[in-house]
Design goal:
The chain is mainly beta and 407 residues long. It has helices spanning 2-19, 52-63, 313-323, 327-330; strands spanning 28-33, 70-71, 78-88, 96-98, 103-104, 112-114, 118-123, 137-140, 149-157, 166-170, 175-178, 198-205, 210-212, 220-223, 236-237, 240-241, 246-247, 252-253, 264-272, 287-288, 291-293, 296-298, 304-305, 333-334, 341-345, 350-355, 359-365, 370-376, 379-384, 391-397, 400-406. The protein has two domains: 22-311, no CATH class; 326-406, Immunoglobulin-like (Sandwich). It is globular and about 65 Å long. Bound molecules: calcium ion (4 copies).
């Protein structure tokens, strides 16, 4: 009898493991915050009473079971998805397949048609808490990084009525509108965020990619960028997953723009990267369908994960040594171009660095105001930020800038 009781749970567990085999497709939507747009409240549909959590669940249901799509609205609107396993960074291979609704138009000589590039960030769950923490995100450096506005910020203002155009301003002195159009009559402001007077999104702003090829506003072509974005290339090429719709985890960079070797990815964030209004087409808005681990043995609507792909332990060790433990609270970053490491010691409020030779250092606040300017000698140095309020600071040491987050 005893043997029976021991054997039974073992069998049950085996059955459970089969049922829970990892899926290459994202298993959850952690956050869905679209910017205002003509598909906001429609993809997915907002219904009376839906709050942020309900909308995240709807976003997941649209993307995965329905194999449909969600829209992120205008510039900055975003979605954060998670997986039931870590997507492995395989050397020299694109690792994550991003389904969107981009297509190539026939009537243009341009490479493009409807491409609405979304910027991609990836996170590895360094502290293992099952959530993407702020310091765990790294941006995928796409082909347009050098042509982009970095540290961009765009604020939308809640309209007085559902029919009013929605005004925005940015931190470069620009302003504009997300215009209401005749094709989409629902409110464009996320209805579960009506208690917010403004919505502010931060990131990089990609260059405009829409061109009115007709010259009279009747035919717009949204061109495709070379690589590194969501909703930027057709999903399929010759019936197979298009490599141009995939990203390589090796394109990840830190806040200095330096390359980061990540062992893998647990979370993906995508936001609309272009802030452009294209006439009757409306605002550029990234659409996202499924986010998929590209290491599969079978593509299609029921892709199968290639379980033989495993994390490179030496890459993981090096990554955790650089970004784990004490660094998790100080947002330290590593300059990949030299051995210079500039980091905040949270206990003293001092920024420390070890310099191979003397030079000059500056500290700026987030608005670009110079707070400190001085010289330093070879060896270990320290700049005291303890008197400054919490926030983001740019510390420039011999011409290399490090972002320091003071909590
Ligand atoms: Ca890779
Ligand atoms: Ca985490
Ligand atoms: Ca769109
Ligand atoms: Ca699109």
């Amino acid at each position: 009898m005893r043997k029976f009781y021991i054997a039974f749970p073992v069998m049950a567990m085996a059955a459970m493991i089969v049922a829970q085999a990892a899926s290459p497709v994202h298993s959850t939507v952690l956050e869905y915050v679209p910017a205002p747009g003509q598909f906001t409240n429609a993809l997915p549909e907002w219904e009376d009473g839906d709050d942020a959590a309900a909308m995240a669940t709807k976003a997941y249901n649209y993307m995965v079971p329905d194999e449909s799509m969600i829209s992120l609205g205008g510039y900055g609107g975003y979605v954060v998805v998670g997986f039931d396993h870590t997507i492995v960074n395989v050397e020299n291979v694109r690792d994550i397949y991003l389904e969107g609704n981009a297509f190539q138009a026939d009537a243009t000589s341009t490479r493009g048609g409807s491409c609405e590039p979304g910027v991609v960030l990836v996170a590895y769950d360094i502290n293992g808490n099952g959530l993407p923490d702020d310091n765990e995100w790294f941006e995928i450096r796409g082909s347009e990084y050098d042509n982009s506005m970095l540290d961009y910020e765009c604020t939308y203002y809640r309209p007085d009525t559902d029919d009013a155009d929605i005004r925005w301003t940015d931190n470069r002195g620009n302003e504009g509108y997300v215009y209401k159009n005749v094709y989409h009559s629902q409110p464009y402001w996320p209805q579960w965020l009506l208690d917010q007077e403004t919505l502010t999104f931060r990131g990089i702003r990609l260059p405009d990619n829409g061109v009115d090829e007709s010259g009279n506003g009747t035919y717009f072509v949204l061109s495709q960028f070379d690589y590194g974005y969501a909703d930027n290339a057709p999903n399929l090429l010759g019936g197979s997953w298009n490599d141009e719709a995939k990203i390589d985890i090796d394109w990840a960079i830190d806040l200095n723009g330096n390359s980061v070797k990540m062992p893998g990815v647990d979370f993906v964030k995508i936001y609309t990267g272009v802030n452009q209004y294209n006439g009757w087409l409306g605002e550029c808005s990234t659409e996202v369908c499924r986010v998929i681990d590209a290491h599969v043995t079978r593509e299609g609507s029921l892709p199968v994960l290639d379980e033989s792909v495993q994390i490179d332990q030496s890459v993981l060790d090096a990554f955790l040594a650089a970004y784990g433990d004490g660094n998790t609270s100080s947002a330290a970053t590593i300059n990949g171009n030299s051995n210079l490491r500039v980091y905040l010691d949270p206990s003293t409020g001092c920024v420390n660095f070890n310099a191979p030779q003397g030079g000059t250092a500056q500290v700026y606040n987030q608005s670009g105001m110079l707070l400190y300017n001085g010289t330093f000698g070879e060896g270990s140095n320290s700049i005291d930020l303890s008197g400054y309020p919490a926030g983001l600071y740019l510390v420039r040491v011999s011409g290399t800038t490090t972002k320091i987050l003071k909590r």
